[in-house]
Amino acid sequence: MATLAKLQKSQASVKSTLHTIEKDLNATTGKVTQVRYERLVKILDRQEVSMNETHTEIYRHLANAAEETVQDTEFGLLYNLHLSLVDRLDQLKPDSTPVMTRAKVKLPELEVPHFDGDIATWNSFHDLFVATVHN
Fold this sequence. Notes:
By secondary structure, this protein is mainly α. The protein has four helices and no strands. The N and C termini lie far apart (77 Å).
């Protein structure tokens, strides 16, 4: 079981990460790339889970209402910062994801000449085949 000091360090780490993302998003002038958007969403999701779990664990160590009030205030700040970052990231979301479409080409039906096995007609068959299929 983690000590209160370790849990508070963990909470401080979440706060530091959120502030780093905040600085990054505030410095962004336009839309972000799809890759960057997806990466930041994952980071924010992980930080939210960590923030909630740490808050719950810290509460188990608190001795009185005054300590709970301090923790509630700190958690409220982190919670609001997290939500503002999610909102800001949503504003910077790329307009659309480029979709790779395959061109569907319909070629005309091609009637392939047939060789009947007669060696006397081989040269004409070969010439017709090469002209039709190869070229």
